[in-house]
């Protein structure tokens, strides 16, 4: 454990989360949904009593610094009740320092300080916006802001000594006209799919459509200000026409065309805003966070089509990552320490204990459990199964904090057969057929398959797939011949790297299909019991929980074309 104060960061918004740091070491960072099993679970009263404290014993240690962020008006009204709950559940050191900061400032501290840059421009583009409150930092030209206004985007220039806000886009919620990039994509998503959290579906559907079919105008961009034209608002209200309905082929073209048109409008507007930010700062480096930072197609264009030479997007750019931002703020601004933590990986969940894995397996009499003492034996067996077109779940080490499965809570498959993707979507994930699955690839071999010349460890960029490579790995090549890839270098996860090499030795392909270890409408698995339950209720063929390999007593159906 490193020296320094014990710091707790708390995010009370959608995708509620907490982050515990000891000095610059992240003890753990975890989303509430992983514990409650409710996707995008908001922060609420009694979270510490019912969700966090029962599962996270490290919370019993005295806390030296506590920083929180809120974005919900209703929750801000409950501050006194939150205070009482924490006083009852947590322990605080005698001189504990505490503060609440704005939602956007928490985003800034989650992306810049843990980035590899000493200087950078910072762009925060959030979803539906967050209230301007007493916690919101001031910036030039805006000494007082009415309380009914919400900040939807904010822009900064930063170095290791100072962060300066150079502009924001605000929205008066009393006005009927909605504004902002995040709000636009939210409305686009709502027009095509019901429910929340479906932005990834729109991004996956967009390449199936024609972005010119509807004749819609671009978004109105003026510096950092983005407005939604009236024609767009008319179209987005017509959900009877554009709502995706599974199996309704007559409506598919309209759903896909709207997704394609909206995705292009969004990308072009983000590029304009980023070019404005570069003109204001002259920075070589860009840090990008907020929920829109998960749009990997846009992210790749930021790298290729703006003056920024390097772009850093953390593995948890959405609201979940703000708890880490709160903790980093507490460490640096209240604790007076330099932050040495960097986003080198996203394996920030609590370390699972081997005894918990063995206890869960001891209750699995319905499964065949095999102990493989040598790691080489286990990843060799996994590679054998994958090359035989079996589907294997992997529960390994600390869980990923962000929404991408990066090889610790993953479902793996053979990328050489397109029907493997279709089978996983239909039989395991029980989701839409057009959803892409991602490749994980050895870093030193990535350029042979993808138009990429940099590491991409967090699966945040959709890179073009070379045409010849697309024929080799069709299961991870999307319809527009791109892939949201994860690279694994020599300093990255050793088990995942060894597995890729074992698969390459058997097939000549250093790429494996990778998707998140969860079933339909559930969060990624967190505990050994959850992993076993998800495995039981899907037709996957094996589950690797090092040093164990778990199989079913009755072999599941073979992977094959989905009719």
UniProtKB/TrEMBL annotation:
CDD domains: ASKHA_NBD_NodU_CmcH-like_N (cd24033). The keyword Transferase applies. Keywords: Transferase. Residues 101-328 form the Carbamoyltransferase domain. It comes from the Bacteria. InterPro entries: Carbam_trans_C, Carbam_trans_C_sf, Carbtransf_dom, NodU/CmcH_Carbamoyltrnsfr. The keyword Transferase applies. GO terms for molecular function: transferase activity. Residues 383-552 form the Carbamoyltransferase C-terminal domain. PANTHER family: NODULATION PROTEIN U (PTHR34847). This is Carbamoyltransferase.
């Amino acid at each position: 454990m490193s020296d320094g104060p014990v710091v707790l960061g708390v995010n009370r918004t959608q995708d509620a989360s907490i982050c515990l740091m000891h000095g610059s070491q992240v003890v753990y960072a975890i989303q509430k949904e992983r514990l409650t099993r409710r996707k995008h679970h908001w922060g609420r009263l009694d979270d510490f009593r019912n969700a966090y404290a029962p599962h996270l014993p490290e919370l019993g240690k005295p806390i030296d610094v506590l920083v929180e962020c809120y974005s919900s008006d209703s929750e801000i009204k409950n501050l006194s009740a939150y205070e009482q709950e924490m006083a009852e559940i947590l322990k605080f050191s005698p001189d504990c320092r505490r503060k609440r900061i704005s939602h956007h400032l928490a985003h800034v501290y989650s992306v810049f300080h843990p980035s590899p840059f000493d200087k950078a421009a910072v762009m925060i583009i959030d979803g539906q916006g967050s209230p301007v409150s007493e916690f919101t930092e001031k910036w030039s030209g805006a000494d007082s802001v009415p309380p009914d206004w919400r900040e939807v985007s904010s822009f900064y220039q930063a170095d290791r000594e100072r962060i300066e806000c150079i502009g924001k886009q605000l929205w008066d919620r009393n006005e009927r006209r909605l504004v902002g990039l995040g709000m636009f994509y939210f409305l686009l998503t709502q027009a095509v799919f019901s429910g929340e959290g479906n932005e990834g579906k729109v991004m996956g559907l967009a390449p199936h459509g024609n972005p010119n079919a509807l004749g819609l105008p671009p978004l109105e961009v003026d510096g950092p200000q983005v407005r939604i034209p009236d024609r767009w608002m008319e179209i987005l209200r017509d959900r009877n026409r554009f709502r995706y309905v599974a199996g309704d082929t007559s409506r598919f073209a309209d759903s896909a065309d709207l997704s394609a048109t909206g995705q292009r409008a969004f990308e072009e507007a983000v590029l304009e805003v980023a070019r404005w930010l570069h003109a204001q700062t002259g920075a070589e480096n860009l840090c990008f966070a907020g929920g829109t930072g998960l749009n990997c197609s846009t992210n790749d264009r930021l790298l290729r089509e703006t003056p920024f030479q390097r772009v850093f997007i953390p593995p948890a750019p959405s609201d979940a990552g703000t708890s880490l931002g709160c903790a980093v703020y507490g460490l640096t601004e209240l604790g007076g320490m330099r932050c040495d933590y960097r986003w080198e990986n996203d394996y920030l969940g609590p370390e699972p204990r081997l005894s918990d894995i063995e206890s869960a397996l001891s209750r699995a009499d319905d499964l065949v459990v095999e102990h493989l003492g040598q790691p080489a034996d286990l990843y060799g067996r996994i590679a054998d199964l994958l090359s035989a077109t079996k589907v294997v779940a992997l529960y390994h080490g600390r869980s990923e904090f962000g929404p991408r499965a990066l090889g610790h809570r993953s479902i793996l498959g053979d990328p050489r057969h397109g029907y493997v993707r279709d089978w996983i979507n239909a039989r395991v994930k029980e989701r839409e057929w057009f959803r892409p699955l991602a490749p994980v690839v050895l870093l030193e071999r990535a350029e042979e398959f993808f138009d990429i010349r940099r590491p991409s460890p967090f699966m945040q960029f959709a890179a073009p797939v070379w045409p010849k490579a697309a024929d080799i790995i069709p299961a991870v090549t999307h319809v527009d011949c791109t892939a949201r890839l994860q690279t694994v270098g020599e300093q990255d996860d050793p088990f995942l790297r060894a597995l890729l090499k074992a698969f390459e030795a058997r097939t000549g392909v250093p790429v494996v299909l990778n998707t998140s270890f969860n079933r339909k409408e559930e969060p990624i698995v967190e505990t050994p019991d959850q992993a076993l339950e998800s495995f039981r209720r899907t037709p996957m063929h094996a589950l690797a929980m090092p040093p164990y390999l778990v199989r079913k007593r009755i072999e599941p159906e073979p992977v094959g074309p989905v009719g």
